[in-house]
Amino acid sequence: MLRFVRRSHSAVDSYFERMLVREDEALRASRSIGASKGFPQHEVSPLQGSFLKLLAETAGAKRILEIGTLAGYSTIWFARVEGIERVVTLELEPERAAVARENLARASLDHLVDCRVGPALDSLQAMTEEDPFDFVFIDADKQNNPAYLTHALRLAAPGSLILADNVVRDGAVVDDASDDPRVRGVRDMATIVANEPTLDATALQTVGKKGWDGFMLMRVK
After folding, report:
1. Over 80: is that where the pLDDT of 35 sits?
2. pLDDT exceeds cutoff 70 at 138
3. Residue 82 contacts residue 54 (beta carbons within 8 Å)
4. Rg of the Cα trace of the chain?
5. What is the pLDDT of residues 100-115, one digit of tens each?
6. I want to staple 91 with a disulfide (CB 3.0 to 4.6 A). Which of 29, 39, 51, 97 is the partner?
7. What is the pLDDT of residue 215?
8. Residue 187: φ, ψ to 5°
């Protein structure tokens, strides 16, 4: 007799997290403290955090730029990349930045991270003498994705990777009539990428604890 087992995307995520992800107390605290303070639960999942770390390590990233810090969960993953020299992370809200700094200090990684507070576009505009970044993670307000990508290209170098998160938006990305500024931001970014000869790019859908979404991965030629 066939045995039918009820399955779910979250259950699959939980299985692979138990089997593959080494989420220690510092990472768990980053998630739980952010939740206790009422921060939006927009941080990447443990599997996604591990994926980002592995991707950055595969690319040999020494300098990483993160647009959108929140409580510092993904920042901790980036700061643990083998061979990392510097992570610059941008956060709008002072309270969130303060919590992120505490979480990074708890993980003994604060010496590797420069957390800059204020509107990300202002912080990016002020970055005129930075060494190029090897990896850029775009995970902030989606309506500004086109501008974030423009700055990422300016701050990257040939061979750098740029990853933009949350580009599927429960499938709404295909709605060319959408008036949701977040959807418009993703679509406008995709148009830039499609017409940018210095970029190779792809996009992958994801499903799991974070719902139906996905990311766009770009490599500077």
Report:
1. yes
2. yes
3. no
4. 17
5. 999 999 999 999 999 9
6. 97
7. 98
8. -65, -40
